[in-house]
Design the sequence.
């Protein structure tokens, strides 16, 4: 067993981890080590082979794989060390990390750790959808891996569960694999993704969307033969024949390492509870990207990585941050979660100066209310709609009147 | 080629019998309709090695479970079948159940098991702190254990093949002819198989095969049991098997740790007509949720990793139905319900003696293969990814393919090239746990499939 010492260990080589690595390595002389369990770094964009990447962070419009390669190049060019096929399997003493790779079983010791392990879609069993256990049931992640990385075949007729951005991404991948999408199914009254995309998507793929509907059963013994769909308004059920079902959205952070470190999790996101600079409750352990906002787009994850990297840089330089007087930020319905979940007076604003939230219902003209101790401390109408299936952003300055000793802050719409 | 003995059904019972008989100078064939061993009832059960404390005293089942417990525990220690002696706590939730405990303890003693202890409510909560409120008392069963339900069939079949037995998978029996001259022909989907002796260990199909031989003595009712498997992060909540007080309807719903480090809740018990109905149901999930939220409310704050349903072979008969018909050179091993995993090796031993009694010449082989060393897929001992020594010899054991279950490329390769190899994703999952984890293939599904395709294309079948 070898011990590798570094200043910063970044767990996860996706957009957040790689951007954090590039930021730290470019600005400082600290040693940065990125640990990536896949064969190649780059994260989810590696297998999202379509346009739409890099808009906010790189001010470009490119495909997922190209974006992923650019992030890898930038991190390594800046001097960060990248270990692929390397998985952190447990914690050692004092934030030490036990890793497994084809080189063996080793240990990493770092002054600071950034968790950037991302998020994934809940598969069918986690959503407790009954029926047979046939082949042909996938998540978007597995579908894109199959099609774009391994060039494997999928079926010929698919039903996609969900109608958010990632669902259309699944539809595009299916189309490329020669599989027609028969139907998208969403519990919401309208598809969750952007209106323009829905119109374009429907026209481009000639796919219909069953709104206010849910899948009640997967049919088939060896291979999927169909799904049973229930109309939530009428209660009527019908069977849609297909040989492939893709479960999209319904995100859960990959929080195993956070949990086994004993880090406090946010009840809404299920990722680590962090303050505006990405600190967890374990000293020296930070978190960034879709692990703390399951999920936002890759460019936002990347900018979050850069933001946390700057805080880590200051941490390594011995800067003392305020600590201990954090005010919890609580998401009330229709918010499902909010991040950061802690307001620490005196700290810089979160990445891009915004709180991120997720809503369960569509609100066309949202008016955000901030309450503390039963008192309304801010209220503002925002010019963008709140829609399930994508992040709803709230300016951080709405919290400027928070009383550090006034107890939890509640966010409502 | 005429086999001396052909066993129909390569479940845990059929493979155990094949293993036992392969140690004699006999040509043994083991037949199954599926493409892998242990694909029927054996695949989906509650994965418990039973002490047999609550069996019906005096039955064959009681005797074989008790004996089988020892035999399988010893075999597991030799072969590396994952097994953990967690112990069980039987919990009484009503006054009536509480009043039943002394009788259960007496029954355990009558079954030859004397280690049960009565527990107060406080002791129950000390043993299982996260149990829901309302437990009135309990009974400890310190030797009840959890076991991997898949590895035993594979280990038995491997040892049988190592000893020269012939494994005939994807051979579905369509008809049987018993010839007066001393042979029997099984007409299978892949042609006829001729044998001197026939052993029916066909599980859910045992009654059908029995009728094909002209008998009419029992009916198998598929009893569906649905189970929920919770995330590994829930494992600290459940360190013991938590049993309900059994009722007439069966053993009821239990919460149990698994040898893979998950938590399991189930099973339901629902008699069906369809022997292929291995799907889960809305009603089953609802039932498990209702039961589970009472048993351990905090469990439902954890993620569900998977859900499955198994069919146990319930029969209209109070005991195992094991019977020889020397005229037909036929032996029935029927009605082996959920205790069959525990009793499998004892059933095989019993079958050996029945065959000897029936006049079959059985000479022990001079040389037999050692029991195989099975790959460890349990959390009771270091897994390959944790073993620097193994990775140093073979870097493929350091290449983690399935992140949730930490399955390495080396293990997947070994599963595909084993004596009884995996031939598809389900087979690889059973042998390595790849794709069985919390992401269910989000990260690794395509990679695992690629490993299988690569192997199958490279290896002539």
Sequence:
């Amino acid at each position: 067993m070898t011990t590798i010492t570094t200043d910063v260990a970044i767990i996860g080589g996706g957009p957040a981890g790689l951007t954090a690595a590039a930021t730290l390595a470019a600005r400082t002389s600290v040693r940065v080590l990125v640990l990536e369990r896949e064969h190649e770094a780059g994260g989810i964009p590696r297998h999202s082979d379509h346009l739409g990447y890099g808009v906010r962070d790189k001010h470009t419009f490119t495909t997922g794989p190209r974006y992923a390669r650019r992030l890898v190049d930038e991190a390594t060019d800046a001097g960060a060390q990248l270990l692929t096929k390397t998985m952190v399997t447990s914690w050692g003493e004092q934030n030490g990390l036990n890793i497994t790779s084809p080189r063996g079983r080793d240990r990493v010791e770092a002054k600071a750790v950034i968790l950037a392990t991302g998020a994934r879609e809940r598969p069918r069993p986690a959503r407790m959808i009954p029926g047979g256990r046939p082949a042909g049931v996938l998540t978007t992640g597995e579908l894109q891996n199959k099609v774009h990385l391994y060039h494997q075949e999928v079926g010929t007729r698919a039903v996609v569960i969900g109608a958010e951005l990632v669902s259309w991404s699944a539809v595009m991948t299916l189309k490329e694999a020669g599989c027609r999408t028969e139907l998208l199914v969403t519990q919401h009254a309208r598809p969750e993704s952007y209106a323009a995309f829905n119109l374009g998507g429907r026209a481009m793929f000639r796919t219909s969307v069953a709104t206010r509907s849910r899948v009640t059963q997967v049919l088939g013994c060896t291979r999927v033969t169909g799904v049973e769909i229930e109309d939530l308004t009428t209660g009527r059920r019908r069977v849609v024949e297909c040989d492939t079902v893709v479960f999209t959205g319904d995100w859960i952070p990959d929080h195993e390492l956070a949990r086994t470190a004993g880090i406090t999790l946010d009840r809404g996101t299920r990722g680590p509870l962090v303050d505006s600079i990405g600190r967890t409750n374990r000293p020296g352990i930070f978190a960034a990207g879709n692990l703390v906002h399951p999920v936002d787009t890759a460019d936002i994850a990347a900018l979050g990585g850069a933001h946390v990297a700057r805080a880590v840089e200051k941490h390594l330089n011995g800067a003392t941050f305020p600590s201990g007087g954090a005010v919890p930020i609580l998401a009330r319905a229709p918010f499902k979660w909010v991040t950061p979940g802690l307001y620490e007076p005196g700290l810089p604003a979160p990445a891009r100066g915004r709180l991120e939230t997720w809503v369960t219902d569509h609100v066309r003209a949202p008016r955000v209310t901030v309450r503390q101790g039963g008192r309304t401390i801010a209220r503002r109408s925002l010019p963008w709609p709140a829609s399930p299936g994508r992040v709803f952003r709230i300016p951080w300055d709405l919290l400027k009147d928070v009383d550090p000793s006034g107890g939890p802050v509640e966010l409502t719409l | 080629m005429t086999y001396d003995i052909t066993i129909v059904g390569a479940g845990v019972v059929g493979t155990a019998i094949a293993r036992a008989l392969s140690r004699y100078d006999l040509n043994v064939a083991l037949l199954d309709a599926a493409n892998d061993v242990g694909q029927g009832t054996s695949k989906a059960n509650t994965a418990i090695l039973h002490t047999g404390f609550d069996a019906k005293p005096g039955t064959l089942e009681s005797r074989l479970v008790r004996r089988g417990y020892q035999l399988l525990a010893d075999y597991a220690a030799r072969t590396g079948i994952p097994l953990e002696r967690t112990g069980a706590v039987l919990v009484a939730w009503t006054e009536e159940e509480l009043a039943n405990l002394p009788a259960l303890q007496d029954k355990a003693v009558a079954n030859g098991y004397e280690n049960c202890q009565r527990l107060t409510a406080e002791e129950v909560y000390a043993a299982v702190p996260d149990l829901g409120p309302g437990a009135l008392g309990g009974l400890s069963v310190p030797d009840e254990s959890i076991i991997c339900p898949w590895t035993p069939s594979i280990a038995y079949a491997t040892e049988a093949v190592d000893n020269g037995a012939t494994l005939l998978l994807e051979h579905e029996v369509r008809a049987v002819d018993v010839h007066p001259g001393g042979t029997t022909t099984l007409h299978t989907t892949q042609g006829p198989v001729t044998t001197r002796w026939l052993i029916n260990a066909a599980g859910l199909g045992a009654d059908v095969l029995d009728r094909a031989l002209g008998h009419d003595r029992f009916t198998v009712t598929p009893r569906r049991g649905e189970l929920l498997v919770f995330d590994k992060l829930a494992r600290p909540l459940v360190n013991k098997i938590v049993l309900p007080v059994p009722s007439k309807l069966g053993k009821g719903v239990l919460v149990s740790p698994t040898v893979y480090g998950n938590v399991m809740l189930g099973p339901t018990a629902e008699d069906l007509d369809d022997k292929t109905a291995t799907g889960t149901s809305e009603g089953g999930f609802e039932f498990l949720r209702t039961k589970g939220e009472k048993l351990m409310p905090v469990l439902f704050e954890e993620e569900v990793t998977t859900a499955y349903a198994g069919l146990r072979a319930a029969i209209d008969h109070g005991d195992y139905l094991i019977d020889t018909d020397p005229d037909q050179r036929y032996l029935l091993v029927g009605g082996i319900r959920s205790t069959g995993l525990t009793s499998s090796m004892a059933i095989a031993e019993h079958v050996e003696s029945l065959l000897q009694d029936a006049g079959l010449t059985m000479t022990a082989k001079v040389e037999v293969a050692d029991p195989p060393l099975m790959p460890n897929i349990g959390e009771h001992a270091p897994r390959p990814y944790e073993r620097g020594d193994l990775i140093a010899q073979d870097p493929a054991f350091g290449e983690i393919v399935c992140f949730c279950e930490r399955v390495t490329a080396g293990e997947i390769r070994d599963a595909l090239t084993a004596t009884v190899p995996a031939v598809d994703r389900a087979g690889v999952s059973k042998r390595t746990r790849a794709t069985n984890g919390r992401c269910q293939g989000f990260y690794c599904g395509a990679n695992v499939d690629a490993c299988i395709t690569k192997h199958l294309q490279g290896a002539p079948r």
In short: Chain B touches chain A at residues 229, 233, 276, 278-282, 284-285, 303-308, 385-388, 391-392, 395-396, 398-400, 403, 406, 425, 438-443, 445-447, 449-450, 453 (CB under 8 Å).
